[in-house]
């Protein structure tokens, strides 16, 4: 099984497990989120250690070991991206499984169990035609200031959505043109989505245009931009202009 096949298989299986945990009726709300996180994390981490014992591992729900910094190949996973949405039984949550090689997001799979979909870096599809009016996916509760301002400047429409993975995959699937985030994330929030987005020909970077680098000692990632390539230059320019006028 290739790395990409493994990532996709594990993401799909974790999604099935999470759906079963939710459908068991034993948990609700925050308790459901905690149960799902713990169960999916145990499955993913155990499977990766069995299947790729020589690789490093970074998970949101697992103790972080500094030994990964000495490894070229590091799996980066988020067992439930969008725990709130999962707990509320919405569809805009995801499972992330990615492999970073020398800091680059080379392999990734993002499962959207609520939609019965797995998007993967080894099976890219053609991008759908863009909307005439650009759509920017933003947080349901805390839209990024820069995203709101960029939307105003380019005549865009804001589309509230849950998890980071769901937002990124909305661009891949043609439901939006731009995902601009500046509210702070961690490596597991974006590694798999970025790997999938890059494979589909999308632009992925920090909001200052610099590359996204993974497997760092500090796993905090302040911002990112995932968008259709035809929008990248304009959006980066607008963000730079906003920063200069603040």
TrEMBL record:
Transmembrane segments: none annotated. Mg(2+) binds at residues 60, 78, 81, 189. InterPro entries: CysQ/Inositol_MonoPase, Inositol_monophosphatase-like. SUPFAM superfamilies: Carbohydrate phosphatase. Its cofactor is Mg(2+). Its EC number is 3.1.3.15. Keywords: Hydrolase, Magnesium, Metal-binding. It comes from the Bacteria. Coiled coil: none annotated. GO terms for biological process: 3'-phosphoadenosine 5'-phosphosulfate metabolic process; sulfate assimilation. One of its GO terms (molecular function) is histidinol-phosphatase activity. PANTHER family: 3'(2'),5'-BISPHOSPHATE NUCLEOTIDASE 1. This is Histidinol-phosphatase.
